[in-house]
Amino acid sequence: MANSSNEAIIQKIEKIVVPVLKEMKLSLVDVEYMQDGGYWYVRIYVENLEGDITLEDCAAISNKIEDDVDKLIDKKFFLEVSSPGIERPLKKIEDFIRFKGEKAKLSLKHKIDDSKNFEGIITDCKKNVIFLELEDKILEIPFSEIRKANLVYEFDEF
């Protein structure tokens, strides 16, 4: 779990990254600053709304931001820039709108119907409420209640 000083660093990293991405016509999905094992990582997830992210894109972003990010953090860390992958996180309300019709897994801050975890199809998104179709009903989930959400990739069965 990120603490407040990590959150402050993440916000500063976002201020560095967003202008670089705008210039490259790319979009920020997420920034993580965390310790994994004995090492610290800054992970930046980016996407191209009109196509794929290339390895060259990731390298160019990394080269443009590494010096500025290095000045923010007094610990040794690894900088990783990548696409969010097929089970990408859903962080903003716009993500839910964009991926309407897709399957998602949501983890909530408080229980709804005795559960904090749901998996279903995003059917709609209105006035900061996510409509999630479960097997037997449609659940209305306030966006503010979502702790974590991501797309669920389903392999085609033969």
Summarize the structure.
The chain has helices at 4-23, 55-72, 93-98; strands at residues 27-36, 39-47, 77-82, 103-112, 115-126, 129-133, 138-142, 146-151.
Describe this structure in words.
By secondary structure, this protein is of the alpha+beta class. It folds into two domains: 4-82, RimP-like superfamily, N-terminal (GMP Synthetase, Chain A, domain 3); 93-151, SH3 type barrels, CATH 2.30.30.100. Helix content is 28%, strand content 40%. It has three helices and eight strands, in the order αββαβαβββββ. The strands form two sheets. It has a five-stranded antiparallel sheet. A hairpin with a 2-residue loop joins strand 4 and strand 5. The longest helix is centred in the N-terminal third of the chain and has 20 residues, at 4-23. It is globular and about 50 Å long. The model has no long low-confidence stretch (mean pLDDT 92).
Write the layout of secondary structure elements.
Blueprint: H1 4-23, E1 27-36, E2 39-47, H2 55-72, E3 77-82, H3 93-98, E4 103-112, E5 115-126, E6 129-133, E7 138-142, E8 146-151
Parallel strand pairs: 2-3
Antiparallel strand pairs: 1-2, 4-5, 4-8, 5-6, 6-7
Helix pairs in contact: 1-2
